[in-house]
Amino acid sequence: SGGCNNFIGGDASSNGYTGRGSGTSYATPSVSGIMAMMLEANPDLSPAEVKEILKLTAERRGGASAPDVDPFWNRDFGFGMVDAHAAVSMSFDLKYQGLTGEVDVTTQVHIMDSNTSDGITTLTGLAWGQVSAVSAVEYRIDGGEWVSATFDEDAETLGPFARFNWSVALDTSKLMEGNRTVEIRAVNTEGVQSLMVATSVAGTWDGQAPKEEYGVQELIMAGLAIALLVLALIILLGGDGDEYESKNATYVPPLTPRQDVVDAIIEPKEGGDENS
Q1: For the segment 82-109, what is each residue's pLDDT rounded down to a tens digit?
Q2: Could you tell me which of 184, 167, 69, 186 has the C-alpha nearest to residue 127?
Q3: C-alpha 66: how far from its chain's center?
Q4: CB neighbour list of residue 69: distance below 8 Å, 6 or more residues apart
Q5: Domain ranges within the chain, ordered by starting residue
């Protein structure tokens, strides 16, 4: 009201109040509005799910103040800066995938790093349970089948808050060209999954069948196969080589016994002269 500047990025220092601010008093109105959009997108979200979505999608700020308790929480920035778009998108995802009320918000999975080298993209991250142990970490590409990630098989014997590493290696030459969505989830010992985290991986496959490359061993085997085929043909067509050559020589018709040429005999007509 009055001379207050309400425009985004505007300077409010001249209104007699302040030009800047921080803390929960400033964050609450904004976060409340974001929560309203989340509930509009998915009215069935529980308070715990709303809280976990805001945490999981936040943009990290500052280092961990209590890393033994949580690897992300910071005493000044909390879990980071709220990402309204990501939070509302995840709310929609839970609704359309039928997972609202079906996830364990105490089971944690996070992507820590993504690296691509020699056509292989490797995703690494952390997983742990705040209440029960984690029995599996899985991933899927573009909504496909879930596949187990690589992780410590003894992870399910770990107690609450005991974190472990997981990794996923993807051959980008086997992924269709363009950005492919990779989703990661953790599953607790009761088979209930966590909220999913996602990232994009650039595929390079153009859809064409890859050309086969033959090594020395394959070439030797092919040569032996051809030699055996030629030998089999020789045997089928006439046994040894000499017989084969004689049977395929130029055909000469057999000679017939010589016969003497006999002059034509002219018999005289009856009653006529022999010379007539």
Answers
A1: 999 999 999 999 999 999 999 999 999 9
A2: 186
A3: 36
A4: 161
A5: 1-102, 103-208, 216-245
**pLDDT tens, position by position, 182-215:** 999 999 999 999 999 999 999 998 878 766 666 7
Q: Hey, what are 222's tokens?
A: 């092919």
Residues with Cβ within 8 Å of residue 216, at least 6 apart in sequence: none
In percent, the amount of the chain with pLDDT more than 90 equals: 54
What is residue 102's predicted lDDT score, i.e. its pLDDT? 96
Across the chain, mean pLDDT equals 83
The residue type at 195: L
- Side chain identity, residue 213: E
Q: How far apart are CA 116 and CA 221, in angstroms?
A: 37
Per-residue DSSP letters for 27-88?
HHHHHHHHHHHHHHH-TT--HHHHHHHHHHHSBP-S--SSTTT-SS-BTTTBT-B--HHHHH
CA-based nearest residue to 146, from 184, 195, 101, 107: 184
Question: Structurally, what CATH architecture does the domain formed by 103-208 represent?
Answer: Sandwich (2.60)
Selection from 230, 139, 150, 216 nearest residue 184 by Cα: 139
